[in-house]
Hints:
Elements lengths: L13 E6 L10 H17 L2 E8 L3 E8 L4 H20 L12 E4 L2 H13 L1 H4 L14 H4 L12 H4 L5 H14 L3 H13 L6 H9 L25
Antiparallel strand pairs: 1-3, 1-4, 2-3
GO molecular function, one term: transposase activity
Pfam families: Y1_Tnp
InterPro entries: Transposase_17, Transposase_17_sf
Amino acid sequence: MARLPRLTIPGYPHHIIQRGNNRQAIFGGSSDYELLLGLIDEHARKQHVAVHGYVLMSNHFHLLATPETEEGIPQMMQAVGRRYVRNFNLRHARTGTLWEGRYKSTLIQAERYLLACMVYMDLNPVRAGMVADPADYPWSSYQHYIGRRHDKLLTPHPLYWELGNTPFARDEAYGALVRAGISESEKQALTDSALRGWALGDPDYVADLQRRTDRRVAKVHAGRPPRTKKEQPVPN
């Protein structure tokens, strides 16, 4: 079966996942985390990609980003991936691949899933048992969004600005969202959509996306459509 091309449309938020090959660690220490974040920052700026959120886990990472051009995210991810692997291999005296194939990504409906996706990413270290409080994890965008530090990599999405009229109000509102968490069904939908490449949103959103691209944006059932009443065979 032919590989489904990634879906990339300018002006829409994309959830991106890159995994380590065979679940192996992709970081050997703090300097590797810092290197990857620096490369993402450099190439996001070059390719005009606004990064809204991220989390770097031990064997994979997530990004939430909106590109200005169709090639922005692919070119950013290609440059980041190649440079990071080259530097990682030199630092750790290794050879060969680091990534589990190409990165995975898809579009998500901002109004319905963008903040949920940010919460999902920020809670990843808690779900993995790495920390009890997401604020204690240094390799995600959470500390930025609760006012603990400023992260120059990040461009807050307009939906984040709508959480409050002041920085303090936004920090508190976002922290409350993370403490409330998301449902298991939302978590699964966010994971599956990115890994499988299908757009995540309500039917009107998906239909609007489909008008903007020749690539299928949602899974369709195999086989011919159900017959209408007029098409039903006449009994003998």
